[in-house]
Write a structure and sequence with these properties.
Length: about 200
């Protein structure tokens, strides 16, 4: 799906499909050089990072193993907060493995801070992060992101895996929604709810 298909909901396109995939692929080639001979394990948090994982892993030039995890957090709508619980765990034992987390976006850093600590406590030999997007203005947890895609302003974005209320994940670029779209949904949701965090 492209911007033109949801034109009425979009305030602005932030990163085009071509710019996004060009950057992800270049980073994947660089990361492949760094992990040559290390048999890395790539981990993505569902659902948001599934798209970037596919593009990124296909552009790598070395064989890798891939696994997914599903997490949930408490909070509402456009902010993650509180407590992380594992909904669906990895099927891989990470002990002794060189792990690269492939992430859609780092916002406060809460989720990644939790995940890095979790993987280290399971005995990973190393844990690094590739994040397609980062919002430096909102960082609260000091998580070292070794491989960064794009830095974006403090705006809620959708597309390329990122949703709002489970929609827009299949948009092929990164865009900002019109405030009216999420105001409408938040009006319907009352109070606190359990969300699929990623
Ligand atoms: P953090 O724990 O770093 O605050 O947030 C991480 C998660 O919150 C992301 O993986 C993503 O699921 C969600 N998130 C943060 N910012 C945005 C955003 O601008 N758009 C969307 N769709 N999700 C976001
Ligand atoms: Mg989400
Ligand atoms: Mg994510």
């Amino acid at each position: 799906m492209q911007i033109k298909d949801v034109q009425d909901d979009i305030a602005e396109e932030l990163i085009s499909h071509e710019a996004l995939e060009g950057k992800i692929r270049r980073m994947a080639v660089k990361v492949s050089e760094d992990y040559e001979g290390k048999d890395p394990l790539l981990i993505a948090v569902l659902k948001g990072a599934a798209n970037v994982m596919t593009t990124f892993s296909q552009a790598m030039t070395i064989p890798v193993e891939i696994d997914y995890m599903s997490l949930s957090t408490y909070g509402s709508g456009t902010r993650s907060a509180g407590k992380v619980t594992v909904r669906q765990d990895l099927s891989t034992d990470v002990a002794g493995r060189h792990v690269l987390i492939v992430e859609d976006i780092i916002d406060s850093g809460f989720t990644l801070d939790w995940l890095v600590n979790e993987l280290k406590s399971r005995g990973a030999a190393s844990v690094e992060i590739f994040a397609m997007l980062g919002k430096p203005a909102r960082r609260k947890f000091d998580v070292p992101v070794k491989y960064k895609g794009f830095e974006i302003p403090d705006k809620f974005v959708v597309g390329y895996g990122l949703d709002y209320d489970e929609r827009y994940r299949n948009l092929d670029s990164i865009a900002v929604l019109k405030p009216s779209v999420y105001q409408e949904v938040e009006k319907r949701a009352t109070g606190s709810q359990t969300n699929q965090a990623e």
